[in-house]
Amino acid sequence: MTTLTRGPEAVKLPAPAPAVKKRGRWLTITLFLLPALVLFLLLVVAPILVAAYSSAFRWNGFGGLPTNFIGFDNFTRLFGTEIFVQDLWHLLVLVLFSVCIQLPFSLAIAMLLNQRIRGRALYRLVFFAPYVLSEVITAVLFSLILAPDAGMANQLLSVFGMDSEWLADPDTVMPSLFLVMTWKYFGFHMMIYLAGRQNIPNELIEAAQIDGASAWKTFRHITLPLLGPTIRISIFLSVIYTIQLFDLVWILTGGGPSHSSETMAVTMMEWGFKRSQVGYASAISVVMFVLSLVFALIYQRFVMRRDLEGATTNMGGRR
User: Fold this and answer.
1) How many CA atoms lie within 13 A of 302 on its CB side?
2) 11 φ, ψ to 5°?
3) Which residue(s) pair with 10 in the sheet?
4) Contact 19/244 with Cβ under 8 angstroms?
5) 3-state helix/strand/coil string of the chain
6) What is the predicted pLDDT for the residue at 147?
7) Are 243 and 288 contacting, i.e. CB atoms less than 8 angstroms apart?
8) What is the tens place of the pLDDT at every residue in 108-160?
9) Cα(88)–Cα(91) distance, rounded to whole angstroms?
10) What pLDDT, on the 0 to 100 scale, is given for residue 235?
11) Are residues 189 and 106 in contact, defined by beta-carbon separation less than 8 angstroms?
């Protein structure tokens, strides 16, 4: 009930009905969400549906809508192709390299730069700077550094009487590609770990030190478990990025030599835009989407379950 004062008398106005309040709240929410929802439908959902539809046709991308329906033949052909199976193997190798080498290295640098050392702000800036560069700039830069003839890397190795083909040798192209990926992205993961470490109360670390725990035991039994949610998010982002890896490979190697560095996205680009087999390329994009979706659902269900439950509980508590 609302009271309105008019002169010496007070007039009581009826309070808005709960249904009116609820409709007004939903109208406000809809108006705020509508622009983002429209963009999401146009830029995310619509391309997924178009790719799924065209993957069932033999289509070159020209002449209107596809009409030559072939069902799942594109997918049957896809998994029977040696190049695509090799793409899956490259994905597995890069994921293992990232999780077992890149992320531990990023964590070690983050723990080092969390210490009170002179110039640590400058070090953080320098290590994070490569992530700010676009993939195109990074790829062009390292294509010059790793050039087999006049590249800076071989000029340095020549001092020791050594050289390498780097990106031109099937035996060294994947390690070289992973080196570039690590240079580009380790600073991003380092900053994530730094943020997670700074959210750990220093009192816990000091209490462990007072009890006589060594630096390694303090890290192993206190810092690392409390960094668990941050590490799990870092692994998730790393795997999703690796599934969609394209820019660096396309500019550095184009998938060569002899498909030895090709990824699913590069294969999709090759068949879709160079060979005009859009239906087949759409099948590749559908497989990439399904891989990302399945991994995300399984990872969140079994690995990040406690983190998500904790976040939901905290939000409920704030309400």
Assistant:
1) 6
2) -105, 125
3) 5
4) no
5) CEEEEECCEEEEECCCCHHHHHHHHHHHHHHHHHHHHHHHHHHHHHHHHHHHHHCCECCCCCCCCCCCECCCHHHHHHHCCHHHHHHHHHHHHHHHHHHHHHHHHHHHHHHHHCCCCCCHHHHHHHHHHHHHCCHHHHHHHHHHHCCCCCCHHHHHHHCCCCCCCHHHCCCCHHHHHHHHHHHHHHHHHHHHHHHHHHCCCHHHHHHHHHCCCCHHHHHHHHHHHHCHHHHHHHHHHHHHHHHCCCHHHHHHCCCCCCCCCCCHHHHHHHHHHHCCCHHHHHHHHHHHHHHHHHHHHHHHHHCCHHHHHHHHHHHHHHC
6) 86
7) yes
8) 999 999 988 888 899 999 999 999 999 999 999 999 999 887 788 888 888 88
9) 5
10) 95
11) yes
Instruction: Check residue 162 and give its pLDDT.
Output: 78
- Other beta carbons within 10 angstroms of residue 90's beta carbon come to 23
- How far apart CA 264 and CA 281 sit, in angstroms, is 10
Amino acid at 164: S
- The pair of three-digit structure tokens given for residue 124, joined into one six-digit string: 């953080």
Residue 85 near residue 98, CB atoms below 8 Å: no
**Residue with the two structure tokens 């929410």:** 29
**10 Cβ contact partners less than 8 Å away, ≥ 6 residues apart:** 3, 4
What pLDDT does residue 57 have?
93
**φ, ψ (nearest 5 deg) of residue 9:** -105, 155
Q: Is the dihedral of CA 166, 167, 169, 171 positive or negative?
A: positive
Q: Residues 248, 139: contact at Cβ < 8 Å?
A: yes
Within the chain, which residues score under 70 in pLDDT? Answer: 1-21, 309-319
User: Distance from first CA to last CA of the chain, Å, rounded?
Assistant: 25
Residue 190, token pair as written in the block = 């380092």
Distance CA 11, CA 98 (A): 71
Place of tokens 């979706």: 293
